[in-house]
Fold:
Amino acid sequence: MTRMTVIGCGYLGAVHAACMAQSGHDVVGIDVDRPKVESLASGRPPFFEPGFETVLADAIASGRLRFTTDFAAAHGNQVHFVCVGTPQRAGENAADMTYVDAAVNALTPHLSPGDLVVGKSTVPVGTAGRLAGILRAAEPGAMLAWNPEFLREGFAVQDTLAPDRLVYGLPAAPADAAAKALLDEVYALPLSAGTPLVTTDYATAELVKVAANSFLATKISFINAMAEVCEATGADVSQLADAIGYDARIGRRFLNAGLGFGGGCLPKDIRAFMARAGELGADQALAFLREIDSINLRRRVRMVDLAREVCNGSIVGRRIAVLGAAFKPNSDDIRDSPALDVATQLQLQGATVVVTDPEAVTNARRASPGLHYADTAMEAAQDADLVMVLTEWDDYRSLDPDELASVVAGKHMLDGRNTLDPVRWRAAGWTYRALGRP
Ligand code: UDX
Structure:
């Protein structure tokens, strides 16, 4: 059992804290956001994440997990995880390091010799080296490790308890052995289950995270570029993805063409990576990521154009139902959500847009108060000239075309995620259009 601190209780930190407590450790979660801390402390997740509520409740009931705004609670703990956000800086590509720096500065007065600070936030390469200097100045006996986190929203609990791999970016010898021993204790459960472990230096560990996210973004934009070509030729990108995906070297995962990637990670991570490479004089190496980003954003424009085409050239005064507001299913996260972006564009261009989502309406309403909202797909589709599925929730995949047809004004379906069965919808009398499919 390790006594540990988790600083930053967002999607990453809160799930990490609860899963660590569930694994037998003694954990205190620290966040500067008092309402968030109070919500977590009373067992109410401040965000939607499947399975999290149960893990949180069990961990609190075990007495091994508590939350506070007071950094002094870190005193006496041996391992301190830094899980705060590194959002995109306003008007720039680079990451905003304010929260990481503030977390480390607030933590240092409470460190003791032998403590291990573990960075989990996604940061520009070189950050760990810089933070190690700050730590050394404050508490020469403390150590730093970089341990990137690869969890996906929607699967956060599962990914935390049973990760694909563990990466330890360790300090130089001789501190590396002590840091590794502490991390091995923290991750005793996944390690004993055979989770692969890669130990590296700081810079490599930092780069693993942004390289992985860049590769995933590239895979999605690759298939979306193929979708553009398919649209120009009348070919079907879904069949194309199936066929190339059978090649084990390529693989079918992350080849779903559609509206492209959003969320709090992929878009800002590739931009921050380009910005950092520029600072390091390696911008040419990542020039392709600019194209990955623009292919991705072009899909949103294409979606709006397609809506206009379906509405005979103008969406002005048309009523459009948008099914989905979250950036992906099984999440209430609307950060850089392609669905909400498209909904906003449609409304700006004169349509009346009614948005629904099984979990993200509250967040969407706060971020985009100018749109209209409904609780269910049937309500959103009431009198709609056009229905668009922009986030592929199971609820929407299982919609009954006949039932939906009974409330709409026009039977036009635009599938922004290639998630519906075109044969079924067309058989029910709908016009069905999708990105990258004839
Ligand atoms: C991502 C990484 O997957 C995860 O490892 C990292 O820790 C954080 O960033 P996440 O942001 O939760 O996780 O979402 P992810 O499942 O990667 O999806 C990102 C976006 O890509 C979503 O908008 C999704 O809809 C889109 N996507 C994904 C596609 O458009 N097509 C695909 O085939 C897969």
